[in-house]
Amino acid sequence: MPEGPEIRRAADKIQRAIAGEVASDVFFAFDRLKPYEDELVGHTVTAVKPYGKALVTRFDNGLAVYSHNQLYGIWVICKPDAVPASRRQLRFSVQTSRRWALLYSASDIEVLSADAVLTHPYIAKLGPDTLDATVTPTDVEARTLSAPFRRRQFATLLLDQGFLGGIGNYLRTEILYVACIHPAQRPVDCTPEQIAAFAEAALALPQQSYRHNGITNDLALAAHLKQTGYRRRDYRHWAFGRQGKPCYRCGTAIAKIVIGGRRCYICPQCQPVNHS
Hints:
Radius of gyration: 20 Å
Helix content: 25-40%
CATH class of the largest domain: Mainly Alpha
CATH topology of the largest domain: Helicase, Ruva Protein, domain 3
Number of domains: 2
């Protein structure tokens, strides 16, 4: 599933393609949304904004289209009449004279009034967005140690969009690795130093991933590895997807565990479960 940085980059791309443009055609695959096609045609796209892992496409007539990519959704931008071949099912599209924005495979799509966007069940429950530059590590520390979250395992806490918005499986692994926290630990099990490191990493890594096309590893190290012939999947992350390969910090083999029903990668040396 695309995580916050990927959705933000998609939103940027769609914004550049169709924002400020008049929709010459709009398509919805679902019958319940078909009546909105005519209501949106002829209106200008005013903004495309991410909310955690969801996107909202706003029009100048007070309507907005909410979409969530879920596991398989993907956005494609193309020139008019130059749609690339795909076996995926088209679910939503906005066509303008300059560019077309096509959403494939996603099934969580709704049309809302602009006023209803912030009360949508998914958006209303979102925690602070890790890509929001106004959120500080101090904010994250306080939230992490607050009553609703401090006794929950980090493994499941970090996948709860109500805790911090935009974090998914690879960011969960990377944040905990950098903070030297085992996924089975809870905030109350951690030292103040670990909580501070977690709060820093919870913002720094998503923001770096957004700016650097998904790279969460140390940027200088990633650049060096790339120059020496490593493949992207081998230099992109500190730990995610690197089962059996040496930890970049201590050399211990990265281990794959399943916790909270999802795969997670740890360094057994850097992230002992009873670190505190």
